[in-house]
Design brief:
Layout (H helix, E strand, L loop, with lengths): L1 H12 L6 H8 L3 H7 L3 H18 L9 H18 L1 H9 L5 H6 L3 H20 L7 H17 L1 H4 L7 H14 L2
Protein name: TetR family transcriptional regulator
Pfam family, one: TetR_N
InterPro entries: Homeodomain-like_sf, HTH-type_TetR-like_transc_reg, HTH_TetR, Tet_transcr_reg_TetR-rel_C_sf
Length: 181
């Protein structure tokens, strides 16, 4: 209920303009209740974005019948497309890009760390079966995650609005060539 209210507000007016009082009122809870759970809007925004990325990941298409490299590529491209088109992330980029800067330049958040661990696990499994090239799974996972974030955040800047989805094909090709043994 609180996260839903915060997500609606942040997607409508942005993170900076969202206040704890607004969230409490929209969620139908007292400000004291809200502050017991979240010390400030930034921590609330971090929790909301983590939840939204988790939801995108939960909608990853089934990849039965694909080898682990193909499956990983399909999943990653789905995640990139989902994040790139998500209303909240679009609004953050439009109104509050500074919210993302610490995660891009200074530290990784909980979501990025879990994404990195998931990719590393998939790479390790793929290497064991011979469908992923040799190399440090941690370094490779870091590279893959950086590619994914680049296509998510800057893809729409460099592509024509009518052609932005074609970037998904390019990302698939890039990942295929990078990961193939």
């Amino acid at each position: 209920m609180i996260l839903d209210a915060a997500a609606r507000l942040m997607a409508t007016i942005g993170i900076r303009r969202t206040t704890m009082a607004d969230v409490a009122r929209t969620a139908g809870v007292s400000r004291a209740t809200l502050y017991r759970r979240f010390p400030n809007v930034e921590s609330l925004a971090a929790q909301v974005t983590t939840r939204e990325f988790t939801r995108i990941a939960a909608q990853t298409p089934t990849t039965d019948g694909l080898d682990s490299r193909e499956s990983m590529i399909v999943s990653l491209v789905h995640l990139v497309r989902g994040a790139r088109t998500h209303p909240l992330l679009q609004r953050i980029i439009e109104l509050d890009p500074e919210f993302l800067m610490p995660y891009l330049l200074h530290r990784s958040g909980r979501t990025s760390r879990s994404q990195l661990e998931m990719i590393e696990t998939l790479l390790t499994a793929g290497q064991a079966t011979g469908v992923i090239r040799d190399g440090s799974p941690r370094r490779m996972a870091t590279t893959v995650l950086q590619m994914a974030w680049s296509f998510t955040l800057t893809g729409p800047v460099f592509a024509d609005p009518d052609d932005v989805d074609a970037l998904d094909d390019e990302l698939s090709e890039l990942l295929e060539r990078y990961l193939r043994p």
